[in-house]
Amino acid sequence: MFRTGSFISGLKTIFVIAALGNSCTMVAQRGAASVGGGTAGGGAMGRSGPATGLDLKDDLKTFHDTLALQANSQQIIEYKLMIKDTESAAELRAFLEQAAKENNASAVADRDKALEQALEKARTENTAFLQKLSDRQKSGLKDTIKKLVKTDSDLAQEAKALDLAIDTKTGGSLIANSAQNLQRTLTSFQNQQVDLGEEMSIGAGDGGQEVSFKIPPVKNEVKFAVLYPASVGPSDLSVAITTSGVISKGALQSGENIFRFELTADLSDLQQHISEVLGSQLDKGERCGEQVVIQSANLTPSAPASVVLVQMHYERWACFGGAPNEMVEGNGAIEVKLLLGIAEDGSLHLVPTIGRVDAQGLVGDLLRSGTLGEVVRDRITESLLTSVQSASNYKALLPSAAQGNVTLRRAQFLETGAGRLSIVLNGDIQVSSDKAAILTSELKASEAKGPSSTAESAPR
């Protein structure tokens, strides 16, 4: 099935035969010369080597070009994750078609929404994978990439057509037909992804069956306590952080088994509720003191960082003889940029930097170099760190056999389509052969079990 791998094997054979043939001919030349043959055999060989019809330089160039297309270990992990996401979308499409045949309007609506999200994720992962190819890979794979990009566009159109059929309530049969059209395009999309993998020799090792496991989504409900109680509104609010990923078994290193993992945590729910979250942490109304109201907030990706922009109203009051007097009043905007870091113990931390400040007078001074700017920066950092720590909770995400054997290699914020913010973590699990068998068994069981959920509370 893996055509590139077969080509490389064949090319190696040709190279060995050619090299042996060349060595034998050289020995024959030397033997002829020793008995007065002079340049015997020279006419048959000429300057370009044996008269075999092979151009060794061209063969070696093709060999090295093919090697340049091969995926590295990180690309293999990302490719497997991309394939899994496409497979998930295909499964959801089948469920939607069945619901349409049963004329179950409620199930159709629910599954259409789930399918839409799955397709968006699959297409986003596909685009991200193609963008991160090296220039040499993009050049060598340009025909396959062109077909895949075209089919990706067709897939988006078919998805829109299906949504339109459902929204206009055109009937179960027409929805089923639209779902079938989507299926044909999705199948073509999957086949082209497989072709891309074959050309990059992904899966060619281990007899063409590289071991990889999908980590089912784990949903964490992170609760934020209201630090400064307001007259109205809930006492607590929560956001959902859903984390999933893939683990692939790598090669042995120093007698230890290496499993490489990539975890992706979806922070889109935090993005939608960032104004409420920061309001719960910053809003306060002291009669003789500070009064702060968060008017709006935005959380956006700026890979490898994230950026929070807060619009706020600030007042400071002082009481003289029991009567409050307004000392300072004004509006302001402050931007805080956050980068992910990995501590020595493997935990994640955030490195905040205050960026642009848009405010006048004393409010501007307080935001730029005073305590107000520091408090806003720290509260933003603490709120996001709570979500980050939830997303990187290995005890909830990785099997027990992996605990204590995990090394984080990289952590960064990433946009995963339509401005959606995610955290991507890459690392290794290093275990003995005995533990590798246990870990593999646990991964299979977890993959079969499916999604789960937990709940955490932010520190008060």
Q: Remind me, CATH topology of the largest domain? A: Bactericidal permeability-increasing protein, domain 2
Helix/strand-derived category reads: alpha+beta
Name given to the CATH architecture of the largest domain: Super Roll
Spatial gap, N to C terminus: 57 Å
Global morphology: globular
Number of domains: 3
Give start-end ranges of low-pLDDT stretches.
1-56, 204-209
The strand count comes to 11
What order do the helices and strands follow?
Answer: HHHHHHHHEEEHHEEEEEHHHEEHE
Rg computed from alpha carbons, rounded to a whole number of angstroms: 30 Å
What does this structure look like?
With 460 residues, the protein is α+β, with helices and mostly antiparallel strands. The protein folds into three domains: 3-67; 70-208, Four Helix Bundle (Hemerythrin (Met), subunit A), CATH 1.20.120; 212-457, Bactericidal permeability-increasing protein, domain 2, CATH 3.15.20. Helices cover 50% and strands 29% of the residues. The chain is built from 14 helices and eleven strands. The protein has a six-stranded mixed β-sheet with strand order 9-10-3-2-1-11. Strands 4-5-6-7-8 form a five-stranded antiparallel β-sheet. β2 (236-253) and β3 form a beta hairpin. The chain starts with a helix and ends with a strand.
Quick structural gist:
With 460 residues, the chain is α+β, with helices and mostly antiparallel strands. It has helices at 3-34, 42-45, 56-69, 73-101, 105-131, 135-140, 142-167, 172-199, 268-272, 274-282, 361-369, 371-391, 394-397, 433-449; strands spanning 212-225, 236-253, 256-266, 284-285, 290-302, 305-320, 323-342, 348-359, 406-415, 421-431, 452-457. Mean pLDDT is 77; it is low at 1-56 and 204-209.
